[in-house]
Amino acid sequence: MANQHLQKFIAHARSKGMDHSTIRMLLLSAGWKERDIAEALSAEGLSMPVPLPQDAGGARDAFFHLLTFASLYTTVISSVILLFTYINRLYPDAALGYDYSQSDLSGVRWSMAAVIVAFPLFLWLTRILLKEMSQHAEKAAGGVRRWLTYLTLFVAATALMGDVITLVFQLLQGELSIRFLLKVAVVLLVAGSVFSYYFLSLRVEPGSAKSAAVNRLFFAFAIAAVAAVLVWGAFIVGSPVAERARRFDDRRVENFRMIVTEIENIAYDGTMKPISPTGEMMPPSKPLPKTLEAVRAGAMYATPDIFDPETGEPYEYTVRTSTTYELCAVFSFVREEKYDILWNHPAGRHCYSIDVRKGVR
């Protein structure tokens, strides 16, 4: 809004016959800002305010381009991580001596979640930007877009160069393997596709038939590739329902561990298991609890959960002898871990036979 003092002065000067140019020079010499003078002069002669221009390539374009490239990088990095994980599972390195299990799948789920969120966002934002650039060709030459595009080209070119250098080095070392070659192929394919698309996008005119063909080809390939990566990942991690059932199985095993620990504490009165002169474990000093409720009541360090997390029913507990008992539950999946194998179990009802002197058998 124009300054009231300026408007009064301009009205007075105009009544004395001064033109706008003279009034402007007087105000500038008095220290007024050009913007304030222009607003006051326009308000003096116009019945409506001067309209503000649209944001032609400023903050809005910067926001859209930054978010587009951020979603692109998230999709590419997460997809490469997923593909490397799939290759590692298909061709495990014998020198590492490591087997993947259900407990290693959290990274796969995290990368899948990143792709599921970032890739549709990338497609949607890119569609908006391509439509705007086809209608306003000057936006294709915007500084933010060109800087981010060339940065992406640099990153992709660096990845390609590093990939080829690694390939040549391994070739000279004579240490090529299917596992290594597949990872090289993944980097070549992903980085090469991104580099090719953005390199061509700088060479074709937005909105032209050639530009439309390049966009269709790239996005068809990207959608097919991402869909394949996600389907493969879903096959590995299973459905959310199956994962929930698997977590219930893990909870049952953890509950059993705590129950076994507290039964030992009760049987040996919270002391270390005594060893006979012959090296054998001595019998417990107290009788085994008759029920799981008695285990909860007599717990010394932590109150165990004696109920199935899925059904809410108490676990089956049977005392067999003065030193042995059984714990039973119904499991949804097979547990085949390479560590702590005493707690492995089949699917369905399974009972652990436990000797208080020796543990799980």
How would you characterize this protein structure?
This protein starts with a helix and ends with a strand. The protein folds into three domains: 4-45, no CATH class; 59-238, no CATH class; 243-360, no CATH class. With 361 residues, it is an alpha+beta fold. Strand 3 (348-355) and strand 4 form a beta hairpin. The protein has helices at 4-15, 20-29, 34-45, 59-90, 106-135, 143-173, 178-201, 209-237, 240-267, 292-298, and strands at residues 316-319, 324-331, 348-355, 359-360. Helix content is 60%, strand content 6%. Helix 2 runs antiparallel to helix 3 (34-45), helix 4 packs parallel to helix 6 (143-173) and helix 9 (240-267) packs across helix 10.
Oligomer: single chain
Rg estimate, integer Å: 36 Å
Unreliable runs, pLDDT <50, ≥5 residues?
Answer: none
Report the strand count. Answer: 4
C-alpha termini separation = 86 Å
Estimate the helix proportion, in percent: 55-70%
Shape: elongated
Q: Helix- and strand-based class?
A: alpha+beta
Q: Give the mean pLDDT.
A: 83
Major beta sheet summary: 4 strands, antiparallel
Number of domains: 3
Strand order of the largest sheet: 1-2-3-4
Order of helices and strands: HHHHHHHHHHEEEE
Strand content: 5-15%
Note the total helix count. 10
